[in-house]
Each structure stands twice: as structure tokens, then as C-alpha cells.
Amino acid sequence: MDWRTLAAQLFPQGHDLSEQDKFLWGTGQVDGRQVAVIGTTDHTPIGIEIALAQAKAVLKTVREYPQRPILILVDTQGQRLRHRDEMLGINSYMAHLGKCIDLARRAGHPIIGLVYDQALSGGFITSGLIADACFALPDATIRVMGLPAMARITKVPEEMLTELAKDNPVFAPGAENYLRMGGLQAIWEDDLAQCLAQALAECDAADRRAELGRDRGGRHLAQAVMDAVRSGGHVRAA
């Protein structure tokens, strides 16, 4: 879905979203109140320019519109893999973006992420995944690392990873698998405006991803490990 069609469905009461160099910015009306919107389009990679543009938009919202909800629209192929960006420290720019989003959360801004097309790698981690709650459209493509790249990094044969991916969502891409792992709160269908209004009404800053992953059978030990660390005890396998 292109961003203009998406915006019309999310904000039937009106919006002023615009796009410049694959960066989305503006506001939309939800149940009579303004929601700040930032995001990307056309599978654009997150380079230093877009990372700074998003961070600037978040800080402007925190400074000028206290506690205004923020919606992050995600469509990215991940961080930009260029020598220039690496030499300039793209990791620091993306960390800065993450810190700005966390600052907004601490200042009382509800933050919702929506993967409406593609979400890969670091571009997803510092946007949708860092929100209070992340959602996706049914046809969204989501993965942090493809199986061929995972095989190269882990030295595990790709054939074995492919077999593991059939039953274990940790190894498999796709919105349904990220839903099972708790990375997604839900998958939005039908009335997107109603989905957004409900998400904003229920939004809170508590991180329940590990709990959701346990309950949905996608991540069996994440919550147990967290509980053990807090209590100083031991982890029991599920």
C-alpha cells in the first residue's frame, strides 16, 4: 500500500502528511485530536539524513506539542549500506533517533509503530520496534536478517535454518511470525482508522513483548530469563 492511500484510510477526518526525499512528516486527526506522524516510504534505506530528519521531527513534537501521540510509519530496507554513512557513524545517528523516541516516551507521548510495507534490519529496530506498541498490515514484509545472511554470520547451514524456520518464528520472516514472538501487538485489517484509535486508547509505555511472545508460543524463555535476572534466581525451561 502506498503512503497516500494509507494516510487516507488512517485519517478519514483529515491529515497534512507530505513526503520529501522519502521522508514522511505531518499530522493527522484521530477522534478530534492531532497525532504527529513521521516515517519513510518506497523501501528507502535509513541513512544519516533520514535518521536526523526523524529525530528532529520527534524533538520538535516534544518541544512544541507536549504529550501529542506519535505514529511511526515504517517502510524501509534497513540502514543504508554505504561507505560514507559508515564512516560518518550511521550507528550513532540511529542510536540518536532511538534516544529521541525514548525521550518522547518519557515525556508522556504515546508512540505507535505501523509497518505498512517493508521493515528490515536496523531501520526497523530504531523505529517500529522501539515504539510503545508496533503493528503491521497483513502483507507487510518484516525481518531483521534474511536466512542467507544469518547462515553466513552464524556458520549454520542455510538448509538447517530453513528447516528451523518452518516451526520456529525466531528464524522466519513475516508479520505472523513477529506477532507470535510478541514483536507486533496485532495485525491491522479492515477499518484502519478504528484500529489506530483503539491502539492509541490502549497505549502505555510498559514493554510486554516478552510476555506476549511467551503466551503466543513464539519465545518461550525470554520472559523467564527477564524474571530470573530481576529475582536473582534460575531459569527453568518451559
Structure description:
The protein has 238 residues and is an alpha/beta fold. Helix content is 44%, strand content 19%. Strand 5 (111-120), helix 5 and strand 6 form a beta-alpha-beta unit. The radius of gyration is 18 Å and the shape is globular. The model has no long low-confidence stretch (mean pLDDT 88).
Draw up the topology in text.
Blueprint: H1 3-10, E1 18-20, E2 23-30, E3 33-40, H2 48-64, E4 70-76, H3 83-88, H4 90-106, E5 111-120, H5 121-125, E6 133-136, E7 141-143, H6 147-154, H7 158-167, H8 175-180, E8 186-187, H9 192-202, H10 209-215, H11 222-231
Parallel strand pairs: 3-4, 4-5, 5-6, 5-7, 6-8
Antiparallel strand pairs: 1-2, 2-3
Number of strands: 8
Please write the string of helix (H) and strand (E) elements.
Answer: HEEEHEHHEHEEHHHEHHH
Mean pLDDT across every amino acid position: 88
CATH superfamily of one domain: 2-enoyl-CoA Hydratase, Chain A, domain 1
If classified by CATH, what would the architecture of one domain be? Alpha-Beta Complex
Structural classification: alpha/beta
Q: Return Rg in Å.
A: 18 Å
Helix content: 40-55%
Number of helices: 11
